[in-house]
Design brief:
The protein contains no helices and 13 strands. It has about 140 residues and is an all-beta fold. The radius of gyration is 14 Å and the shape is globular. The termini are close together. About 30% of the residues are buried. The model has no long low-confidence stretch (mean pLDDT about 95).
């Protein structure tokens, strides 16, 4: 397995909505190794991360994770920040965070053994409140 990562900017500020989704393909699994959330605007914000009850449908302009070793094959895990139908709220969250209204504040969640994702699975950054309209999300996966 190889390590891949990707940083995205999300402007989804709606309460009780997905801010970003990480998705596997119908043939590949992965493990979430690390998640980062940092505010790029001074808005008090609350986020949770977890598996959505249902993945999003028809992601708009998904972006594929990048290999950290250029000799590794291209990644297959993708991320999305917009959908025809967004993912649904997780039943429970792996982690939650409340951030003050300070640009640059954030959190790095690490998972030493990784959070396993099944084929055709999803993992979501979820807005628990009306959040910052400008947030930087990073995900690191073992694929």
């Amino acid at each position: 397995m190889a390590i891949y990562s990707l940083s995205r900017n999300s402007t989804v500020a709606t309460s009780a909505a997905a801010n970003e989704e990480v998705r596997t393909t119908a043939t590949d699994r992965c493990k979430i190794m690390e998640v980062q959330i940092f505010l790029a605007a001074a808005t008090a914000s609350r986020y949770g991360i977890g598996r959505p009850a249902a993945i999003g449908v028809t992601p708009t302009s998904p972006v594929t994770v990048l290999a950290e070793d250029s000799a590794d094959p291209a990644g297959t895990v993708t991320t999305a920040v917009a959908w025809a139908t967004p993912p649904t709220v997780p039943t429970a969250f792996f982690r939650r965070i409340a951030l003050p209204a300070t640009i640059g504040t954030g959190i790095i969640f690490t998972f030493p053994r990784g959070i396993s994702m099944a084929v055709s699975g999803g993992f979501v950054f979820w807005n628990l409140a009306t959040n910052s309209a400008d947030v930087e999300n990073t995900v690191i996966v073992d694929e």
